[in-house]
Amino acid sequence: xxxxxxxxxQVSLGSSLPTYKAVLFDVVPYAAASDLLNxxxxxxxxxxxxxxxxxxxxxxxxxxxxxxYLIRRSTANTGGAPQTITTTQASFLSGQAAVxxxxxxxxxxxxxxxxxxxxxxxLGTPQLIDGAHITIPAAATPSVPVTFFELTFANRGSKPPxxxxxxSLSLSFGGNAVPGGASVYASIEWVEVPLLSLF
Length: 199
Description:
Structural class: mainly beta
């Protein structure tokens, strides 16, 4: 039986832990996009991030297909003209981005969330958590249904991906060509737990 760490293994039923979500909508990725979003935690932090959900979908001018990856890195990226994403909704790559707290009474997230307007330089050892090949419909005259990349963790008694101090999590398109007129919707959700609570 999984050890209970403040209901963090039961987030689908309601958790008392601080929960956050990085949200992108109507975002047009840069050409040959690699990492689009990166969530890191300082090496000096006393908390870790437990990833609970990831969602990506998009359309484009013409129907196409695309690859999406969720990657854990041993350190944060550098370069790539990063734009810090905060709880104040702001313009990002022709769309909008924000970090959302499930409860505004919770403390601000200890993570650092950035979006990239150019390809960053990944550092350290990458570890692919998951990936998918998705169908992208034409926005004006969709002839195929929207498919999406969705991962929900910690809902089957298994341990979710953990981002420990000094590590980061990237939402990546793998450097593949971005379809013309692409418009991306994406979100990554996580909870923050004290390091002493991890098992």
